[in-house]
Amino acid sequence: MIRAIFLFAVLGIGLFAGTQFAGQQGYVLISIANTTIEMSVTTLVIFVVGILAILFGLEYLIKKSLNMTSTTWNWFSVRKLKRARRNTNEGIVKLLEGDWQAAEKKVTRWANHHDMPLLCYLIASEAAQEMGDDNKRDKYLQLAQQQDNSTLAVELTKARQQVRERDFEQSFVTLSALQNDYFSNPMVLSLLKITYINLKRWQLLLELLPRLAKAKLISSEEQAKLSKQAQCGLIAEVAKSKGSEGAIALWNSFSRKTRHDGDIVACLATQLIERQADSEAYSLVVESLKKQQNDALLQLIPTMNLADNYPAIVMLQGLIKKNPEDAVAHSVLANVYMGNEKWVDAQTHLEKALSIRADVSDYSALATVLEKQDLTHAANDVSRQALSLISTS
């Protein structure tokens, strides 16, 4: 537009000057080598305007041609991009449907034309793993690693695959490298939880739990459950390497609240019993039961090899006196009596426990007690009741 205005302006000025100097057009001589060109000033102005108009016209045609070429190129590029996106979307659907081969084919065919090839290669690696082709899986992960800003996505995909394959040693290595830079990433934290539990890295799990709770990845109930599991795991770990004294030392290092937890006490007592520290286990159990009753602790008493189990009998009788409907206390006392071969007393308490609630182990114990008293017919009846309870459970 500006060029057209410029040409009209020049042409107008020329025409104006022509009319003003009519009959006085002047003289222009151009000499080049042996060639001379003669013309009036008016003719020169018209000639220059004509040349400019031609040049402007050529410029316009060239630009128009280039724009058409660029538009055509962009049209093909956008068409390929749309097709790549459509194939990737279809590949994701195929992956969700379980058609791994189709998913791999869809996402890789146009990956080079996709605006995010990282997504294509990650989906392809997932499909390859589901097909059990580790070589293809690793190849696609390598291609994904070559893309910009791919570290987190690739490593998380790799870690998820390792966890699914139960290759927890490798997932531990992968996630350990990530957690420093991605301290609060929820996927990293969740995968670490699974890895630590399966590798029995109890101390690391205890350190991880507050971060999981802060990120709202576990409920308070699950946190308490995992904390107990980790603490019991630590006790077993230390007991195995350092014996009963090491386990007691570790337990003493726990907080007061933890030491008063009956389930944790039961874990320690179990480890002490396994290492023939039965008297220490009994003292620990009795001290804990004074604070609060715990069925898991009670059920450990018959497994203890005590020099004299009379104090245990007195303690259990005291619990029953406080609560005659305590089925677990009746069952435990019956088992202690069985250890002393007091079959009648054992029968009494087993029958009382079973009158409160049905329990397969108590039925089995009662059948044994009846057989010891040569009450075979009654023992068979009890055994049939136990079998009936098992079949309906």
From TrEMBL:
Pathway: Porphyrin-containing compound metabolism; protoheme biosynthesis. Keywords: Cell inner membrane, Cell membrane, Membrane, Porphyrin biosynthesis, Transmembrane, Transmembrane helix. The keyword Transmembrane applies. Residues 26-132 form the HemY N-terminal domain. Pfam families: HemY_N. The chain crosses the membrane at residues 39-62. Involved in a late step of protoheme IX synthesis. NCBIfam families: TPR_hemY_coli. This is Heme biosynthesis HemY N-terminal domain-containing protein.
